[in-house]
Design a protein that fits this description.
about 170 residues, alpha/beta, Ribose 5-phosphate Isomerase B, Chain: A, five-stranded parallel sheet, 5 strands, globular, binds D-ribose
């Protein structure tokens, strides 16, 4: 992607990935963190650091803040289903989060929609599929086409008009 596009998409340094999970995603987070590092990325682990019951909105906020501050390039959130994490992450300004349990959506979500947080459900998919999805997500680049930019601008406009703070 051209640098002008990166600025507009508010992206942090490429290769830095913020990852977070509640208790439901704790084990998969640990497995994926090692895999992501081995794949040549830096992982910023925002917790949880145990499988004690915890609340996914907390990790959604922590991961989003790393992206908003441009300390991280993209994020990954894991809970039991991926749903709670994505609902929470999409409340945070500039976050484009989605549950993807297939490699097509993980790639296309970045290429067309500039998805910047991948959400996974550790109680839905296994570790090997999760790794393939993560790699599809991380290797994908936003396609800087006019129609994709137009749609993103409309999403920005929704944020401007309807998000009250943050
Ligand atoms: C926690 O039990 C579970 O509700 C959470 O991990 C997630 O699945 C929510 O979407």
């Amino acid at each position: 992607m051209e640098s002008r596009g990166k600025e507009r998409l508010n992206m942090g340094p490429k290769k830095k990935i913020a990852i977070g999970a509640d208790h439901g995603g704790y084990h998969l987070k640990n497995a994926l963190s090692g895999f992501i590092r081995q794949s040549g990325y830096e992982v910023i682990d925002m917790g949880a650091f145990s499988n004690e019951p915890s609340d996914y909105p907390d990790y959604a906020r922590l991961v989003a803040e790393k992206i908003q501050s441009r300390e991280a390039w993209r994020g990954i959130l894991i809970c039991g289903s991926g749903v709670g994490a994505s609902v929470a992450a999409n409340k945070l300004r500039g976050m484009r989060a989605a549950v993807c349990h297939d490699t097509y959506s993980a790639r296309q979500g970045v290429e067309d929609d500039a998805m910047n947080i991948l959400c996974l459900g550790a109680r839905v998919i296994g570790e090997e599929l999760a790794k393939e999805i993560v790699i599809s997500y991380l290797r994908a680049e936003f396609k800087d086409l006019e129609r994709y930019r137009r749609r993103l601008s409309k999403i920005k406009e929704l944020e401007r008009r309807w998000m009250t703070s943050g």
